[in-house]
Design a protein that fits this description.
single chain, 17 helices, about 425 residues, about 5% strand, 2 domains
């Protein structure tokens, strides 16, 4: 085996190699921890390594990121898990990497700039709370809550939950505490609404604040890793997302039970007008873009794409009688085709931007309906027969699973096809 100096620039000392590797590994860790796709993290890190004169290999795992210099024993390990999604930090780190590679930024200043990028603040608590309330209310409109009183109750519940998430984020290190607490708050407030008959859309008052908690980017990144045969990492990402979803359901049901409610009333179906549906979809996209620390300058991009996709979905369901699963697939295929060149050009994290654009299609309503039916089943609620409850669990659970599956396929397939068969620039510079 060759010594590390064999693959380093002439005259480079061992200490300089260590510093270079530390900078390279730090950049990789920042990208990995803040929601960048695994393949793009690997590609960016390898390019940065070559600019330092080092051929590096990146070995990402859940809980650990290793960057090693090929044909040497030199390596750097960061104990880190990809729990966060922060587009501002990803963009800042990617910009630094590109400038170092293009030699428009001295390599010696890269590490200090990366430290600043890693310390960029997320959006303010006020903006976070306001957009959580706005996003939940927008999802309420999409699912049929058109009364002002119901929308205000949804917004209040989501806003209180968002504030609790921010407070826990500062005082608790466990990532599961935030969605559990927010969903429990939503369940408790919904129970109060049900017992006081304060809304005709009590079920949506319970569900919509929980829909903004769904960990979509982790689901997409996990699916992408599986498609790339990074099996262990993909399964880990999906397992993490699955635990989050489970805790959201547990928190919601626990909050309802604490308020003395063991089952949710059935809301009457409401036909949502086209304009209201599309505008609400745009507001939901803006909400999730805020959650992922997207700048005001970039927000119009996913908003426009998301509104177009939701308009297509609405038309397919309303005029063609297409099932919600098929409509989600077609709309997400459209989003995948449009958003791929955007993320390539702007160096944005694909999963975060893609999920932001299609968040209004996530089947949170069906998922929570299934969980509610399970609760009624085990509590022996007399309002429905066992067979009816089992049918509801299977129907809603299957619909939720298929929508998530079809959305994932619709978003990923165009990305992979364009990478393989698209323009040379896309294939060269934009791995998934």
């Amino acid at each position: 085996m060759k010594d590390a100096s064999d693959c380093s620039p002439s005259g480079t000392t061992g200490n300089e190699r260590d510093l270079s590797l530390d900078t390279i590994a730090f950049a990789a860790a920042l990208l990995f921890a803040n929601g960048q796709t695994t393949e793009r993290t690997v590609a960016s890190t390898e390019r940065l390594g070559r600019s330092f004169g080092l051929n590096v290999r990146v070995l990402p795992q859940w809980g650990e990121l290793t960057v090693e210099v090929e044909r040497t024993l030199l390596s750097d390990v960061y104990p880190i898990a990809p729990l966060g999604v922060d587009m501002g930090r990803v963009i800042a780190v990617s910009d630094i990497v590109e400038k170092v590679v293009d030699q428009s930024l001295p390599r010696e200043s890269a590490h200090s700039l990366l430290e600043r990028a890693g310390q960029l603040h997320t959006v303010s608590t006020l903006r976070f709370v306001l957009f959580a309330a706005l996003g939940a209310a927008a999802l309420g409109v999409i699912f049929g809550a058109l009364e002002i009183q119901s929308l205000l109750l949804i917004a209040l519940s989501a806003g209180v939950g968002a504030f609790a998430r921010r407070w826990l984020g500062r005082h608790a290190s466990n990532p599961f505490a935030q969605p559990l607490a927010a969903s429990a708050i939503a369940g408790l407030l919904a129970a109060i609404v049900i017992r006081t008959h304060a809304s005709n859309a009590a079920t949506l008052v319970a569900f919509c604040p929980c829909m903004v908690l769904i960990p979509g980017p982790h689901i997409l990144n996990g699916a992408i890793d599986l498609a790339r045969t990074r099996i262990s990492l993909g399964i880990s990402r999906l397992a993490y997302a699955g635990v989050l979803v489970l805790l959201i359901c547990v928190g919601l049901l626990a909050g309802l039970a604490a308020g003395g409610v063991t089952f949710l009333p059935s809301d009457s179906p409401v036909a949502v007008p086209f304009v209201a549906d599309v505008v609400a979809a745009g507001l939901a996209v803006a909400s999730f873009g805020t959650f992922f620390s997207m700048s005001w300058r970039l927000l119009p991009i996913p908003i426009g794409i998301g509104m177009l996709a939701h308009a297509v979905r609405w038309a397919l369901i309303a005029f063609a009688g297409v099932h919600v699963t098929t409509a989600a697939l077609v709309a997400c295929l459209l989003v995948g085709v449009i958003i791929t060149p955007v993320v390539d050009r702007l160096q944005l994290p694909f999963a975060a931007l893609a999920f932001s654009a299609v968040v209004s299609m996530m089947p949170g309503y069906y998922l929570f309906e299934s969980a509610s039916a399970l609760l009624r089943l085990v509590s022996s609620a007399p309002q429905a027969s066992t067979m009816e409850l089992l049918t509801g669990v299977v129907r809603n659970g299957t619909t939720a699973f298929l929508v998530v599956l079809f959305m994932t396929i619709g978003l990923i397939l165009p990305r992979m096809l364009l990478e393989r068969y698209g323009p040379a620039r896309t294939r060269r510079s934009a791995p998934l």
